[in-house]
């Protein structure tokens, strides 16, 4: 299987020149699907600290790029919405987000903000010993109590990149419920943020629908449940407000 794809068919959300070269790096299987932006492409096309794939590999092999609290060594690992990427040697920290057009952008954040990550709970399972495990949307699993539900969002600590100490401690929780604030991360409304006013459940294979309202623009729009990512309660979480 090829490790590259033609730039002309690369996801629009990557925001890369389509005709500068013929091919671009393909996203490897991992925490995000094929729409995830490869770390090597991010270093070269978005941040500009690598001129080519060879330089990107050297940077990663030196453990200079920390993704969600762990050193990243693979240039093809994908980045997705709300991932935290740090480059300690440069003192720079970024949160991957969606702009109003649904494109992946890198928002520079303070070092303190880079110590936590907003995560969506994909589902939860009961494991050996009757313990509850939360399965997060970007591939991680953590143990917690039965307070949390699928489609809720939690804020977790990322811990020390080398030892992992203090990793995955839950410090905040945004339930998937009417009145709370969410971002749409798929479909034609991708990148929009609004307050949930109605959750329409359907007793069929058709996805449940969610109606949101953007109070600042006095706009009402609708999406499916799968595209909802909770980002706050009565308002956007303070650590996200300046960058959304």
Structure in words:
This protein has 244 residues and is mostly beta strands. It folds into three domains: 4-111, Roll (Structural Genomics Hypothetical 15.5 Kd Protein In mrcA-pckA Intergenic Region, Chain A); 114-174, OB fold (Dihydrolipoamide Acetyltransferase, E2P), CATH 2.40.50; 181-233, SH3 type barrels, CATH 2.30.30. The chain is 9% helix and 37% strand. The chain has helices at 39-47, 53-61, 238-241, and strands at 4-6, 23-25, 37-38, 66-67, 70-71, 78-79, 84-87, 92-98, 104-108, 116-127, 131-136, 141-144, 153-157, 170-174, 181-184, 193-200, 209-214, 219-224, 228-232. A five-stranded antiparallel beta sheet has the order 5-4-7-8-9, with no helix packed on it. The longest helix has 9 residues, at 39-47. The model has no long low-confidence stretch (mean pLDDT 92).
Key attributes of the depicted protein:
Structural Genomics Hypothetical 15.5 Kd Protein In mrcA-pckA Intergenic Region, Chain A; mainly beta; 37% strand; 9% helix; globular; 3 helices; SH3 type barrels
In CATH, the homologous superfamily of the largest domain goes by the name: RNA-binding S4 domain
Q: How much helix, percentage-wise, in residues?
A: under 10%
Number of E-state strands: 19
Principal-axis shape equals globular
Q: Determine the mean pLDDT.
A: 92
Q: Quote the CATH topology of the largest domain.
A: Structural Genomics Hypothetical 15.5 Kd Protein In mrcA-pckA Intergenic Region, Chain A
| Intertermini distance | 37 Å
- CATH architecture descriptor name of the largest domain: Roll
Number of domains: 3
Strand content: 35-45%
Described by its quaternary structure, the protein is single chain
Spans where pLDDT lies below 50 across 5 or more residues: none
SSE pattern, N- to C-terminal? EEEHHEEEEEEEEEEEEEEEEH
Text of the CATH class of the largest domain: Alpha Beta
Order of strands, widest sheet: 5-4-7-8-9
Please, how many helices?
A: 3
Structural class: mainly beta
Rg computed from alpha carbons, rounded to a whole number of angstroms = 18 Å
């Amino acid at each position: 299987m090829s490790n590259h794809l033609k730039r002309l068919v690369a996801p629009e959300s990557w925001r890369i020149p389509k005709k500068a070269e013929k091919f671009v790096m393909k996203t490897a299987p991992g925490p995000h699907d094929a729409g995830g932006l490869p770390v090597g492409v991010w270093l070269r096309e978005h941040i500009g600290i690598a001129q080519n794939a060879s330089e990107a590999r050297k940077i990663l092999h030196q453990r200079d790029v920390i993704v969600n609290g762990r050193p990243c060594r693979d240039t093809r690992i994908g980045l997705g919405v709300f991932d935290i990427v740090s480059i300690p040697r440069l003192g720079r920290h970024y949160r991957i987000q969606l702009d109003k057009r649904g494109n992946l952008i890198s928002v520079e954040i303070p070092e303190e903000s880079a110590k936590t990550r907003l995560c969506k709970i994909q589902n939860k399972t009961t494991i050996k010993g009757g313990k509850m495990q939360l399965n997060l949307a970007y591939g991680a699993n953590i143990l917690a109590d039965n307070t949390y539900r699928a489609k809720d969002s939690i804020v977790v600590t990322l811990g020390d990149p080398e030892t992992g100490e203090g990793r995955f401690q839950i410090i905040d929780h945004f339930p998937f419920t009417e009145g709370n604030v969410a971002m749409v991360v798929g479909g034609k409304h991708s990148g929009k943020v609004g307050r949930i006013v109605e959750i329409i459940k359907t007793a069929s294979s058709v996805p449940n629908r969610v109606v949101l309202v953007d109070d600042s623009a006095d706009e009402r729009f609708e999406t499916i449940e799968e595209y909802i990512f909770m980002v706050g309660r009565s308002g956007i979480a303070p650590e996200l407000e300046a960058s959304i």
